[in-house]
Design a protein that fits this description.
The chain is mainly beta and 247 residues long. It has one helix and 17 strands. It has two domains: 87 residues, Immunoglobulins (Immunoglobulin-like), CATH 2.60.40; 125 residues, Galactose-binding domain-like (Jelly Rolls), CATH 2.60.120.260. 10% of the residues lie in helices and 56% in strands. The strands form four sheets. The chain has a five-stranded antiparallel sheet with strand order 13-12-15-10-17, with no helix packed on it. Strands 1-3-6-5 form a four-stranded antiparallel sheet, with no helix packed on it. A four-stranded mixed sheet has the order 2-8-7-4, with no helix packed on it.
Length: 247
């Protein structure tokens, strides 16, 4: 056997050993794992509001091995990985958000708390009202008298159910003629599910001070069905006053 062949064999063996060592180093369970930081964009929010929660992880292995599991004592978490969006529950209180990170062998866990505040004032715009279903562009109209604005952030929260209709529709909302929601698709194709849409929008640019406001909820229908859609409830958050339905 020539000395060149011996040298090549020795080098090849060394590379194999090094390669195996690297595989062992970066395999699950071979690295050190630590959640270095877990933080929220805010520590105190109103009920129903959202916060961004993110983490920094120190891991000596390959990050592709890691899985992230988020849990909250109340509210909802959307997303996965290092950053998620947390939506606070309607009930006030201190909520705990916990992150668990693991590569399947080593594991680390950390928690933070967020204080959820009750919204101090709200005004019910309308409730338990079916759209009249007299036209393909159907409108529920309310005259709202705002007596007090208790916060710079005024929101309109609405809860709408697809009651007897069988198709989707488009929802628009205007306040004093200003569009605050433009043709949002709502509903589902199976009426037995009573498809429900609950959401809220910031209307601070329109409702800034006490006064009278006309709020219109309009549906752009593709199928005219009497009592097809139901406004379960609509509320203005952080204001005080009265409301009445007008034709």
């Amino acid at each position: 056997m020539s000395k060149y062949l011996i040298s090549f064999t020795a080098i090849l063996s060394l590379l194999i050993i090094i390669g195996c060592g690297e595989d062992q180093l970066y395999a699950p369970g071979r690295g050190t794992l630590k959640i270095a930081e877990l933080k929220s964009s805010v520590t105190e929010i109103d009920s129903g509001d959202t916060a961004t929660i993110e983490c920094q992880v120190e891991y000596s292995g390959q990050e592709s091995f890691l899985s992230y599991t988020w849990n909250a004592t109340g509210g909802n978490i959307a997303g996965n990985g290092k950053q998620v969006i947390y939506t606070a529950p309607e009930e006030p209180g201190v909520q705990t958000i916990t992150l668990t990170v693991t590569d399947g062998v080593v594991i680390d866990q950390q928690s933070i708390t967020i204080s959820v505040k009750a919204i101090s004032s709200m005004l019910t715009v309308g409730s338990n009202t079916h759209w009249p279903a007299k036209a393909l562009d159907d409108v529920l109209r309310y005259e709202v008298t705002v007596a007090k604005v208790s916060n710079n952030k005024v929101e309109l929260k609405y809860d709408i159910t697809q009651d007897q209709d069988k198709v989707d529709t488009f929802l628009s909302i205007t306040i004093n003629g200003t569009t605050v929601l433009n043709k949002k698709a709502i509903g589902g194709f199976i009426p037995s599910t009573a498809e429900r849409t609950v959401d809220k929008i910031d209307v601070s640019n329109v409702i800034r001070a006490p006064g009278k406001y006309t709020i219109e909820f309009s549906l752009e229908l593709t199928n005219l069905v009497k009592n097809g859609w139901l406004l379960n409830e609509a509320k203005l958050l952080r204001v005080e006053g009265t409301s009445r339905q007008i034709m």
